[in-house]
């Protein structure tokens, strides 16, 4: 996943108190004007959210849940090390909190606003408590397309070295091809994929920086081309982050000229003050993103929470101009 957070207050909050902290939603909706201009309770558009699931105890998040949600995390989870994972296909209960926060950015709940409170959502759980296998992600993309979703939100990504060699003689080309096949399939079927850029302060067109990053994670014998998938593919909509002032988020990767930027927060104050002072000064309320998580609410930052805003806005445009009935490519 592509975000970070701090410990949260799990108390249920008054809507009027909560909503004054939603500077990001306020920015995207034009101070709520988009709700007035477009208030539709029977949306024909569906967004597939490929993430860690959703908190089923937060019933406000489930009001738009459609009938294609499913789980891809197998028995025992990632690398067979996740207790409590039984591989039940209907198990979309979030264990991480990330997916819940992403869902809330789109539809909101009983206490907080989302960008598009009327859009239909399907939750495809590809994370347990840790990582996701690329095979799970790819399978979920194919299924999300076949299930009739119009948009697929991926608040995740992976750096792949697609030629050259790691120390063990391998590279990531096979994984790259799997992603490519799924992305191409979605594109052929007219499904829009929205993917978060990374949070590593990189220019993804700078190969030396990408190679340096991937070399810090795995020993490289022969340097090769490094790409960030799925945002690398030209048919995806890549999303980076901006802060409250509209500047590029300090942690956000920069994409190509086609990338879109949406509110993701800032960690400049965190770097300047340190976590304890940031919390004591409540500066995070100004800099970070307020959203739902397991059992309550939290402040977060990251491009993970920019991408769903774009997904929700695109869905609203499709509905507003009836593009589902008269598709335009």
Distinctive features:
329 residues; alpha/beta; Rossmann fold; 7-stranded parallel sheet; 3-stranded antiparallel sheet; 11 helices
Write the layout of secondary structure elements.
Layout: E1 4-5, H1 15-19, H2 23-28, H3 33-37, E2 46-51, E3 70-71, H4 98-107, E4 120-125, H5 134-146, E5 151-154, E6 158-161, E7 165-166, H6 173-188, E8 192-196, H7 207-215, E9 220-222, E10 226-229, E11 236-242, E12 260-263, H8 268-273, H9 275-280, H10 284-287, E13 289-293, E14 296-301, H11 307-320
Parallel strand pairs: 2-4, 2-5, 3-4, 5-8, 8-11, 11-12
Antiparallel strand pairs: 1-14, 6-10, 7-9, 13-14
Helix pairs in contact: 4-11, 5-6
Fold and architecture overview:
- With 329 residues, the chain is of the alpha/beta class.
- The protein has a single domain (4-320), classed as 3-Layer(aba) Sandwich (Rossmann fold), CATH 3.40.50.200.
- It is built from eleven helices and 14 strands.
- The chain has helices spanning 15-19, 23-28, 33-37, 98-107, 134-146, 173-188, 207-215, 268-273, 275-280, 284-287, 307-320; strands spanning 4-5, 46-51, 70-71, 120-125, 151-154, 158-161, 165-166, 192-196, 220-222, 226-229, 236-242, 260-263, 289-293, 296-301.
- It has a seven-stranded parallel beta sheet, sandwiched between helices.
- Helix 4 packs parallel to helix 11 (307-320) and helix 5 runs parallel beside helix 6.
- The chain is globular.
- The two termini are 30 Å apart.
